[in-house]
């Protein structure tokens, strides 16, 4: 069975749905890497590989699957209230390097959708049986057409939704892309590449302003430096 079929089979069975899977392959192109994550891989290594690199990725794969299990759980408070805490969404800061500086992609919400006219970053729900990494890659592709060169896990952001009486926890990523050309989905009417400072002035949500400061600090040298091995998610 091809490895895509194996991944699909493992993720479809309750007994193996959360099993950590690291794909070892000779196919090092971007499409293959994105595809294995879409089918449920926990991590990805191209051949030839070093044993130390594989060993370093093993705990990350296990952590990723633990996060996926956490995402699927909804915690009921013990005091009898109905408010729930749900880790059910992802935020993705899309970045492009211009010289020694970063540009951030801001997107304006289209007519007829939530928060019409507001400027935001990539945002969306984690679907059933998706890990946060898989959700981030899917939302990025659907909203901008991009497949990232690099993906970093940054932080988590809680916020309250009164209409569902839930405290949502957004798992936050930064996606580095190489092209300036984006393809917008139906949720957005236009987008702009901007500096961190300009993006903070434009974006609607204050929590995103703080997030951009974290991203700017973590990736100030072009990558995550000494913590690259911890924060790199793809």
Specify the CATH architecture of the largest domain: Alpha-Beta Complex
How many whole angstroms does the radius of gyration measure? Answer: 18 Å
Let me know the CATH homologous superfamily of the largest domain.
Nucleoside Triphosphate Pyrophosphohydrolase
**Remind me, CATH topology of the largest domain?**
Nucleoside Triphosphate Pyrophosphohydrolase
SSE pattern: HEHEHEEEEEHEEEHHH
Unreliable segments (pLDDT under 50, ≥5 consecutive)? 61-75
Residues in helices, as a percent range: 25-40%
> What is the CATH domain class of the largest domain?
Alpha Beta
Quick one: overall form?
Answer: globular
* Beta-strand content estimate: 25-35%
Estimate nothing, just give the exact number of structural domains: 2
